[in-house]
Amino acid sequence: MATPLNSQEDALKVTLKQLFLGNVAGALGETCALALIIGALWLFYKGRIDWRIPGGYLGTVFIMGALLGGGFYENALKTGLFHVLAGGVLLGALFMATDMVTSPVTPWGRLIFGVGCGVITMLIRLYGAYPEGVTFAILIMNALTPIIDNFTQPKSFGGVKRSA
What we know:
Number of helices: 8
Distance between the termini: 68 Å
C-alpha cells in the first residue's frame, strides 16, 4: 500500500504506534510523527511559528475524524487520532501551513486559516476522490489569506487624517 489512507482495510493494517514511529509506507517526511513533532517543538521554542495554525488545523482534523470518520479504527477517538497521524497532516500543519509569507498576519486570522485547512482536508479525505487533501487545503486557504487578513485586521481609531 502506498498510504494507509487508501481504504479502511489498509488503515486497519497499521497501528497507531506504527504511525507515530514512522513504520508505515508513505511519502518522505510525512511518516514519522515523532520526528515531525520534535522539529515543530524546536520551531515553537525559537518563536518561528505560532500555535494557532497547527492547533486549529490538528484540532479540526481530530474532531472531524472522530465525529465523521465512521469509528472504523476501534472507536471514534482512535479514528480521529488516526487521521492526525496518517498522511501529511502533521507535516502540513506544522511546517507548510505555518509559512510566514502565505499565512495570515493576525492571531484570529491564523486560527481561521488553521481551522479552514482542517475542514478542507477532512472533506477531501472523507467525501472526495483523493485519499489525501492536505496540499489542496493549504493552497485553497493560501488563496483566501488576503480576504482573511482583510476581515481580521483591527481598525485603528483616533488617528489624524492628513489634509490634502
